[in-house]
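Justification of computing resources. Each target in the renewal requires a structure prediction run like the one illustrated here; the chain below, 140 residues long, is used simply to show the kind of job we budget for.
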Amino acid sequence: MTVRVERTFELDVPPEDVWEFISDPERRASVISVVKDYERTGEHSSIWHISVPIPFLDATVEVETEDVERDPPTHVKFVGKSSALRVTGEHEIQETETGSRLVNQFVVEGRVPGIEGYFKKNLDDELDNLEDALSEEATA
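Resulting structure tokens:
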């Protein structure tokens, strides 16, 4: 089973501030609740250490992530791979009259029983975390 989620945010944040946040692999990782640690391995690559509370996964999993498409300042796509899952995330920034629109697409393919179910149930909350962090940019 593959989990696919698409969600769009309307933000009172200038597009360049959204780009600054969303194009930074560390800042993207920092708002995902299952990412317990993070290490940068290159300018556009990193390892996310994730902990997903499911029965067959009682250890932290290293997910090697890399930006595979970048079109500054409007588009970034990343892929994360591990023995437990493969995740693809894509973000497109559009300028609006009051700020920005951010179109987010995520696909999670599990390789361990329970991964898809966890993300199907919790991916919306993870996107709420992203939206909240970006909204805070407007008040910072």
